[in-house]
Amino acid sequence: xxxxxxxxxxxxxxxxxxxxxxxxxxxxxxxxxxxxxxxxxxxxxxxxxxxxxxxxxxxxxxxxxxxxxxxxxxxxxxxxxxxxxxxxxxxxxxxxxxxxxxxxxxxxxxxxxxxxxxxxxxxxxxxxxxxxxxxxxxxxxxxxxxxxxxxxxxxxxxxxxxxxxxxxxxxxxxxxxxxxxxxxxxxxxxxxxxxxxxxxxxxxxxxxxxxxxxxxxxxxxxxxxxxxxxxxxxxxxxxxxxxxxxxxxxxxxxxxxxxxxxxxxxxxxxxxxxxxxxxxxxxxxxxxxxxxxxxxxxxxxxxxxxxxxxxxxxxxxxxxxxxxxxxxxxxxxxxxxxxxxxxxxxxxxxxxxxxxxxxxxxxxxxxxxxxxxxxxxxxxxxxxxxxxxxxxxxx
Length: 395
What we know:
This protein is of the alpha+beta class. The protein is 50% helix and 14% strand.
């Protein structure tokens, strides 16, 4: 029997994960990768240093590419698979967590609740413009005193005749000050409800959060609602209670578990390239045993986490994915990506702290990703509850 010798492993795809992707998935992945290389990577270090993000320009370009709400059907959305959405998030975060957050907030946190719980009139009014990038959205759930326990929110909506009147404050809101519409979750006499709030309404204002050292290439704001009056049809009719916002967060977390592997891959590949080019004691530092140990650990982590993300994507597409599985992916992939970034920083030495290389930027960003959309501790308890049948959130 004739045998062939397998090709040596590709350092950038050690487990040949590309072979698990369809031609359509590879085409989409490569299209987003090229966009990131052309439009994000050349300038993102400057954006990070300046603490800014060209939201309007990026919205138009990302909308034209079909990235907003890409996993949703109809209303101008691309209708891709969940796995394809995940692969797009991976490539976007290989550029920067801020770029992936921009797409994630728009599609999974602002568009998804309208698509899933809105009236047909609301869907027709908002979704096509949001899919095209003409309308930017944000998602108002977290408050200054209400993070991991969002049900304790103080923002309230009360009835006044046929109208709703909203009062409260939301914190750490991505896209807040550049958004045209906010999906705001508030307490009512009937429980938590979601509201579509045009940001030009009287009483609605924002304040950007400055002095960040993480997610700097992303707009983060406080939303202030001071007697914001809305018509009766501003409420999302299809959901009541915490199921609404938590289901949106689950959609966003799915993108994160892919995205974190993009950041990890960028750090690993930067360290690999640097170790082969950097010479000390007359040899590349890649020839040193400790450096090879670091490279091996990073390569294993990136490949393992990417396989996990792909598996969870296939589960979501088959309808077998539960929120506990998403917590599993976010829990492990983000902490693993953070470890990769820290290891890569060590390989680059002093150069690892400059924005000429992507590593310190990803490392700082991942500190935020580790916390937002459910802290690492909360996801630990979600997994623990699934394993034991005992919920440890309240004792």
